[in-house]
Amino acid sequence: MKKLTLVLTLVLAAMSVDAQQYNITFKLEGSTDTMLYIARHFRDEVQILDSARLKNGSYNFVGSKGLKRGVYALVHQDREKSIGDFVIDDSRKFTITADDKLTSSKVKVKGSDANQRMYNYMATVSEANKEIKEIRERKKNPDTKAAAEAEEKALMDRMDAYDKEMRHPKTPQLYFDLINLFETAQVPDSVENKAYYYRTHYWDGVFESTMPDLIYTPNLFNKLNYFFFGILYSADSDTIIKDLDRLMARVEGDTVMQRYILDFITPKYFRSTRNIGWDAVWCHIASTYYLAGRCPWLSEGTLHNTRYNYNKIKQSLIGAHGQELWMSDTTQLTDPSHWISSHRFPEKYVILWFWDPDCHHCQKYTAELKTLYDSLKTAPDRRFEVYAVGYESDVPKWKRYIKDHELPFVNVGGPNVNIDYQEAYNVHGAPTMVILNEKRDIIMNKLIPINSILSFLDNYEKRIEKH
Q1: Is the predicted pLDDT of residue 34 greater than 90, yes or no?
Q2: Which CATH class is domain 2-111?
């Protein structure tokens, strides 16, 4: 009985391997590549899985390890440029004949209904888009506008019917499953806050699917990338954090999907100089997921670095209390009793200005800041003082630049300082701007245009008045 069980196991194993074998041929007219690759999508990259040399006008991929059901890319011999996509669905033995660009209208498929339906659909949609473009040009002409509008409606109705028919085949097919799965959320007309509804329903149905290897489709990456760096690109940090947490709640328990999402978005928010508040998003990710033990794939080294950076960055977030600096001015006196505080000015706001006389950007912005500062000399309330920290180890050069350019700020610098200001304010280059309010809390930790400083302060005061 044991022997029979062993034989049966071996047979089943052999059948399983055989079921995963593939024999895929591409005949591409005009192709000059001596070798092509099959690759799978992973985020915005492709991972090479197999290769085939040009032989008798064809590229024949044969493998015994198997390619799972999914979307794959055919890649040029440079291993960088993708020629186009194809699917492995109901068949692993098929031939695709086309031009060297896999132009959908020129593709002929033998042995894979899934691929033929996909390319037919793509070709039909592409042709319809060309027609729509031509019709809309004729709509601009008053003489042909009415006829063009009627043609447009007829074409749209025809394409809607075609779309519904193709998206719901008698047997499920991967390409159309993915289209339906990643279809844009429809916002009901009755909804007042349409933007909020769209954001909060953006992921509906996506992670409820039983489709395997969703992370190896271009659809998931494109949808994820557009959500965070399209829809939420200009959102405040609180909004981004709430939407991130809602997304992560949808994939709770799925460590593969959690890692896919966090590994992609986390580096984008780390020390980003592009958007205000993104450092707060990174700190939230670090504290809520990484340092809370919810990412079992992380190494001790990664956790250590995350904890180190988190402890530094969190103290320079908007809303945190700015650490008081004591520094020597151009006299460079070493006695701390002669040093100047960054906090003890009568002005309501303090602009901490970290700059380097050798930095061209610093020179440009410092000159603009001086112009603004000088223009407010006679103003009844300048509202701010500039605490300009020389980000330069060559003290004579720094002092000479101040003198030559008659910088009117509170100029401090050199080695005489009470704390490491680079760590205190997350300064990793020059110029860096930090604005403190009357309580000396941080209200801005990114470089904003100099001509926007006054309007920023005005808007800040309006927000404070509302609360």
Answers
A1: yes
A2: mainly beta
